[in-house]
Automatic annotation (TrEMBL):
GO terms for biological process: regulation of DNA-templated transcription. Residues 956-986, 1017-1026 have a biased composition (Acidic residues). Signal peptide: none annotated. Belongs to the MYBBP1A family. Residues 1-150, 950-1027 are annotated as: Disordered. This is DNA polymerase V. InterPro entries: ARM-type_fold, DNA_pol_V/MYBBP1A. Residues 107-116, 133-142 have a biased composition (Basic and acidic residues). GO terms for molecular function: DNA binding. Residues 87-97 have a biased composition (Polar residues). GO terms for cellular component: nucleolus. It comes from Amborella trichopoda. Keywords: Nucleus.
């Protein structure tokens, strides 16, 4: 029974050895178990080896990803069973024959039991495992029941205490050793493993002390052996200690749970705590117990290798080898240990890195003398170093670097690896790095983990910089800050770091990794992520090289790329790294854009650069970023190709083909504007304004640098000539920047010296100052007309600026008086209006000046006219300059100021830029109160014009050729006829008839105008009574658009049409401002008549949807939904009646929903104006028009009216109810269509509801009116009840109407009159259909 007990104990012990599936270092580190709780599946082949190596370099957390693939329990080998039986024999001596018989008998019993239970084990592995456990439990239970009572008590007691007492009662004075601690060593809990290790070491130390004491006393301890005696060289150790050592060594080879971590920890502490253990004997024992035999395969071989590795690591970190050398300098244990480790590392590739780590751990515990005489003299290690570069062994290179660090000087052993003496400067040279390229390439075998060589190499790379920073901090703490700055400039290692970085990137990153396989490209990204966090901002450009950026862009441009996620991760990490560091963010943005010609986001399909740039808002880092962009723009030209030298003289048409080669400069200019716009920092805006002015408008004739004494700085230009395309972009962005400055009215720059603070004044001063420098000139030669216009605008701007300053002073004085209660509000308002005009006109001059430079010969006339307008608008300014050339503008018959101003503003719109249009709008808004009806008609004529050819063309007429081209119909004769009277009336009627005939195709019939003089839109091309010269003068801006009309057949029509559309949209913006300013004035009706006609024509002819929506929006917002509407003497009833008739006709026949909706809203608005301006006696024609529409609704099937429209009209205009109630009652009685009758009843019912829900005074006023129609209501009720509709829904409508009529009768207290008016048949029908409701009326 004791033998059986020992056999069971041996089986349990072996099972405990195999509980672990993860591996751990022998050090007492709690971090090694945090990642061990998650079990990872083990892959086969090279993937397993890579995973093992990935976890081996750091012993405390290495090999923790290993897991045994098949989870079957290893059977107890025959040798282990024999050892356990030998251990039991040592306590219960028997004869050899009896031992042999017992062993044979046990084997036979086990085989019989296996055969008996094999048939009952299912095929499923999980079920088979459960079945086997049940059989083992039954077997153990049977054996425990057959034990003697005394033995069973001991076993139960040991199970309760989680220990097995190994010493019999005869030797109770010897300390006991609890075998159960081995079970706790494989637990996943770190605290439990450490507690088990502590208990194990404590008990073994006590056992060893007792053993040594027994030996001194001469006592025998043969009865205490736990296994058979073996010749292992551990004769000085107690049997329990020898057993524990074997058990610990076997345990580190187990791949279950945390067995390797726990057993390696126990082995380390045991070896370090008990000096009786000999190192050489332990090495032999490790080789003996973990020897790989030829019968082992796969996982078993791997477990043995890793077990030896962990055992060697435990021995190295225990400190025993270093201790032996200290006691005996001639000891060969170090060399034997090194050779054993190297020999093991040569077995498998994944063992090299952890083996090198073990040697480093040992070297750290040894003095330098021992390294030179013992470690480096190991034969296998020497061979390793000699063949490192040939074999491409990165682990040996890492080992050599770490050993070199611990040595006091250079050793010849490493002479083949790097030049002597060893230093970062010598290591990071092109020659040294080239010799080590083979080692660097082979570090990819452990991916996705980065090999330990790279972090160590990065530490060496930055060692001088970090050492220098520490020295600077020490110096600053001792000396003054000025001295430290001088030392920093004198001894700055950043230049050396840049050289080393360039060599490293050129040889290793670009030459070895990026130009090789995908794995090595991935490794290059990982290595750079180690470098980037430690880089100063001044060194980033050395790492983000052109080849790296191109490789990154190539990968990111294709989502299906194998490295797409790796490149994305790399880019994301860099963005996160520089997110909160302005200098680094600037360096990264500049590098990304510089190497991709400003197209990184476009090619890579990301928003990286956009997001990084967007972070430069109000941040102070915005200023250095602008400086970096300017430097990049100026330096970029130096790297341009030789073909860029003669670009300055190229025409703009030829520039388009070269746009792609200047995309970086395009991006810089665009980015400068966006930064200045978003930041709103005045310093940034000032720098951007200066840069765009210099690069867009000027060029230096002598060199690229010019010193300006007035600006107190050097003005720079790129070395290569700036193309016309870039200059045009600079000028366009300059216009946008000035437009933004105009929007932020009141902002001022920080002035230095003579520099003005007002932005507009600063620009004009800068322009004039730079033009006066002899070696600087404008980028193009101006014509005499442009030069004259430029001088006039500059002079006028200076005078207006002086006037603006004086008005500001007056404004401040008036505001102070107003605070004191003595101010004049009218005067203050007048000053403010004048300031608005001056400010708006001044910025319009600036924008127009840039247009003159940008488009030579096109805007000089408009500029001269605008200067004349400024002189006339501000003629009260007492200055001789304003009276110059007065004879040209004040002669008799000269046009009115606002006519010239409006014509000039309109002439600027067709080809002007967005900022110029904004400036035009500001001027128009400032002078809007002075604009009269003729000026409004000029704008409306532009909106009304189309590209269709003239209806009356005269063949073979050279004089009319321009008219044909422009497509403008001349109607001077018609206009004169309008003034004469009847002829004009007849002509207007003829034109209206033409329109009606054309509109009949779409079912829209516009009413005829009875009086052309009262209907300004009666004439298609009303010119406001202007003669030919005046009309053509105002049409000059149209000629700019229609000049390509002859080429429409050749494909130019689309361009012309788009230009005309843009022109109309810009004029509509001015018109919207006008309508907003003149809301509630009769002139609004004129704008309405033109706009509504344009919408109807566009809808009928399929015109531009954009233009239709724009005009409809203006009508809705600025006319129909305004609180104020036209009132006064200027509103004429005939005009309103004509508009109303047309809107009702359009609403009745139009098939387009937007037109119908607009017509209905126009009807509501017109009825509101009619009600507010005229009495009921004047509205007879209005009633007839509306009655005609109702008649059309009831009788004409083509009518598209809905009853809801009339209900809304009656709700808004209750006065129409009184006028049309009788007419609707008549239609209810006489309409043949049952559907139309029900619709009419619905309208009448709504009228009745209005009376029922009205106020008491309203009800009393309607009493006599309803009483007059009471008989008609009674007849209608009788007719409806006698012949009810067939459909149930329509009968419901009839019932609802009748009940509503009864309620009105009750509300108005006309019960008696109603009953008298009812005929007997109707009375009976009401009584039968309505019951209680009718009874209430009767009562």
């Amino acid at each position: 029974m004791k033998n059986k007990k020992k056999r069971e104990e041996a089986e349990n012990e072996v099972e405990n050895d195999e509980i672990a599936s993860l591996c751990e270092s022998p050090t007492i580190s709690r971090e090694m178990s945090k990642n061990n709780k998650k079990k990872k599946s083990l892959e086969v082949g090279n993937e397993v080896e890579k995973a093992e190596v990935a976890s081996l370099p750091e012993i405390p957390t290495s090999l923790q990803g290993m897991k045994k693939k098949n989870k079957k329990k290893r059977e107890v080998t025959e040798n282990e069973v024999e050892e356990s039986e030998d251990a039991s024999l040592s306590k219960n001596p028997q004869s050899p024959q009896e031992n042999k018989k017992n062993r044979k008998k046990k084997r036979e019993e086990a085989e019989n039991e296996d055969k008996a239970g094999f048939s009952s084990i299912p095929a499923n592995p999980m079920e088979r495992r459960k079945k086997r456990r049940e059989m083992d439990k039954e077997k153990h239970q049977t054996e425990s029941n057959n034990m003697p009572s005394r033995t069973r008590v001991l076993v139960q007691s040991s199970e309760h205490q989680m220990s097995v007492v190994s010493n019999p009662p005869l030797l109770s004075n010897i300390p006991g050793f609890h075998i159960s601690v081995f079970r706790d060593l494989s637990l996943a809990d770190t605290m439990a493993r450490e507690a088990a290790t502590e208990a194990l070491v404590k008990e073994l130390c006590e056992v060893q002390k007792a053993h040594e004491k027994c030996i001194k006393e001469g006592s025998s301890e043969d009865d205490l052996q736990l296994e058979a005696a073996k010749d292992d060289g551990l004769n000085n150790c107690a049997p329990s200690l020898r057993y524990a050592l074997r058990r610990l060594i076997r345990g580190v080879s187990s791949s279950r749970e945390c067995a390797r971590q726990g057993f390696a920890l126990g082995l380390t502490i045991v070896i370090a705590s008990i000096p009786s253990i000999k190192v050489d004997s332990l090495l032999k024992l490790i080789d003996e117990l973990l020897e790989v035999s030829s019968s082992m395969k796969g996982q078993e071989v791997r477990d043995c290798y890793l077990g030896r590795l962990f055992a060697y690591g435990a021995l190295a970190r225990s400190g025993r080898i270093a201790g032996e050398w200290t006691s005996d300098k001639k000891s060969k244990s170090i060399m034997e240990f090194i050779n054993s480790v190297v020999s093991l590392a040569n077995k498998k590739r994944y063992l090299r890195e952890p083996a090198a780590s073990i040697i480093v751990d040992l070297a750290n515990k040894l003095p330098a003398q021992a390294l030179s005489t013992h470690v480096l003299e190991a034969s296998l290690l020497k061979e390793w170093f000699q063949r490192a570069t040939d074999d491409g062994n990165p682990d040996v290179l890492l080992l050599a670097m770490k050993l070199q660090e611990t040595l006091s000087g250079d050793d010849e052993t490493f002479s083949k690896l790097w030049p002597c003496p060893f230093s970062p400067k010598n290591l990071f040279t092109i020659e040294a790095l080239t010799s080590l390229v083979s080692c660097f390439k082979e570090t990819t075998f452990c991916q996705p983990r980065v090999h330990s060589l790279w972090p160590y190499l990065v530490d060496i790379l930055f060692s001088d910089l970090e050492r220098h920073e520490e020295e600077v901090l020490d110096i600053q703490s001792i000396t003054s800050s000025k001295k430290s700055k001088k030392n920093r400039k004198r001894n700055s290692p950043e230049k050396d770091l840049i050289k080393r970085l360039r060599s490293f990137c050129e040889v290793v990153i670009e030459g070895a990794l990026l130009s090789s396989s995908h794995d090595r490209k991935h490794l290059a990204f990982d290595v750079l992520l180690l470098v980037m966090p430690r880089l100063p901002s001044s060194c980033i450009h050395a790492v983000l090289s052109k080849k790296l950026i191109h490789c990154l862009v190539d990968i990111l441009s294709t989502k299906d790329s194998w490295l797409y996620k790796a490149a994305q991760h790399f880019l994301h990490e860099i963005s996160s790294l520089v997110e909160n560091d302005d200098d680094r963010r600037i360096a990264v943005v500049v590098a990304l854009q510089q190497h991709t010609d400003g197209k990184f986001d476009i090619i890579a399909r990301t928003n990286t650069v956009k997001d990084l740039v967007s972070k430069f808002g109000m941040d102070p880092g915005c200023t250095p970023f602008v400086g970096s962009l300017i430097s990049l723009f100026l330096d970029e030209g130096a790297s341009g190709s030789a073909t860029n030298q003669n670009l300055e003289g190229l025409a703009e048409d030829d520039d388009d083909s070269l746009t792609s080669s200047y995309s970086l400069r395009n991006w810089i200019v665009d980015c400068l504007y966006r930064i200045s716009k978003n930041s709103k920092l005045l310093t940034v805006r000032k720098e951007a304004l200066k840069f765009l002015t210099l690069q867009g408008l000027f060029s230096a004739s002598l060199g690229t640098e010019v010193t300006s004494f007035e600006l107190h700085e050097k003005l720079k230009w790129p070395k290569s000539a700036t193309s016309s395309h870039i200059r045009r972009i600079c000028m366009e962005q300059l216009q946008l920047l000035l437009g933004d400055i105009q929007k932020d009215e009141g902002s001022e720059f920080e002035s230095a010296g003579k520099e003005p603070s007002e932005p507009g004044e600063y620009f004009m001063w800068l322009l004039e100052t730079v033009r006066n420098i002899p070696s600087v000139s404008l980028f193009r030669t101006l014509s005499d007309e442009d030069e004259g216009a430029l001088k006039k605008m500059h002079s006028m701007h200076a005078k207006m600026l002086c006037m603006e300053k004086e008005n500001k002073k007056e404004k401040e004085k008036e505001e102070e008086k107003e605070k004191e209660g003595k101010g004049n509000k009218d005067k203050l308002f007048s000053i403010r209006c004048k300031l608005d005009k001056l400010f708006a006109m001044r910025f319009l001059l600036i924008q127009l000046l840039l247009q003159v430079l940008l488009h030579p010969g096109e805007f000089s006339d408009a500029a001269s006219e605008l200067v004349i307008c400024c002189k006339k608008a501000f003629a009260d300014y007492n200055d001789p300059g304003f009276s110059e050339e007065e004879e040209d503008i004040d002669v008799d018959g000269s046009p009115v100021l606002m006519d010239v101003l409006v014509d000039t503003l309109l002439s600027l719109l067709p080809h002007s830029s967005g900022p110029l249009c904004f400036a035009v709008e500001r001027v128009f808004k400032a002078f809007c109160d002075e604009i009269a009806e003729p000026n409004l008609l000029s704008m409306l004529r532009v909106i009304k014009k189309d590209l269709k050819p003239s209806r009356h063309q005269v063949a073979d007429s050279d004089d009319d050729e321009e008219e044909d081209v422009l497509g403008i119909e001349e109607t001077e004769d018609n206009d004169e006829a309008e003034e004469s009277g009847e002829d004009g009336e007849s002509n207007a009627e003829m034109r209206n008839e033409d329109l009606n005939d054309a509109d009949d195709d779409d079912g829209v019939a516009f009413g005829k105008a009875n009086d052309a003089t009262q209907d300004p839109e009666g004439s298609d091309d009303s010119d406001g009574g202007m003669d030919d010269a005046a009309m053509f003068r105002m049409d000059s801006y149209l000629a700019l658009i229609f000049k390509e009309k002859k080429n429409m057949a050749g494909g130019g029509g689309d361009t012309t049409q788009s230009q005309l559309m843009l022109f109309k949209l810009r004029v509509l913006s001015l018109l919207e401002i006008f309508l907003q300013k003149h809301a509630g004035k009769p002139i609004i009706l004129t704008a309405y008549s033109y706009l509504i006609r344009v919408v109807f024509n566009l809808s009928r002819m399929g015109g531009s949807v954009q233009l239709t929506q724009r005009i409809s929006g203006i009508l809705q917002r600025r006319i129909f939904k305004q609180k104020d509407y036209p009132k006064g003497d200027g509103v004429q009833i005939k005009t309103l009646e004509n508009h109303l008739e047309k809107s009702l006709s359009s609403a009745s026949r139009s098939k387009q929903e937007p037109v119908t909706s607009l017509s209905q809203n126009a009807t509501f608005w017109l009825l509101k104006i009619v009600r507010a301006n005229f009495t009921e006696t004047q509205l007879q024609r209005t009633i007839e028009i509306f009655q005609t529409s109702l008649e059309d609704f009831f009788t004409n099937k083509k009518s598209r009216f809905k009853s809801g429209f009339f209900k809304e009209v009656f709700r808004r205009e209750p006065w129409l109810v009184r006028m049309l109630f009788g007419f609707l009652l008549e239609k209810c009685r006489n309409t043949k269509s049952e559907f139309r009758r029900v619709e009419a009843l619905s309208l009448v019912d709504d009228m009745l509801k209005l009376w029922v829900s009205g106020k008491a005074e309203v009800i009393l006023s309607e009493l006599s009116f309803f009483k007059g129609h009471l008989s008609s209501v009674c007849d209608l009720i009788q007719q409806l009840l006698s012949k009810p509709p067939e459909k149930a829904s329509r009968r419901s409508e009839v019932r609802q109407f009748c009940i509503g009529a009864l309620k009105v009768v009750s509300k108005l207290k006309l019960n008696k009159s109603f009953i008298k008016a009812l005929k007997p048949d109707a009375y009976a029908a009401c009584e039968s259909h309505f019951g209680d409701v009718f009874k209430e009326v009767v009562q």
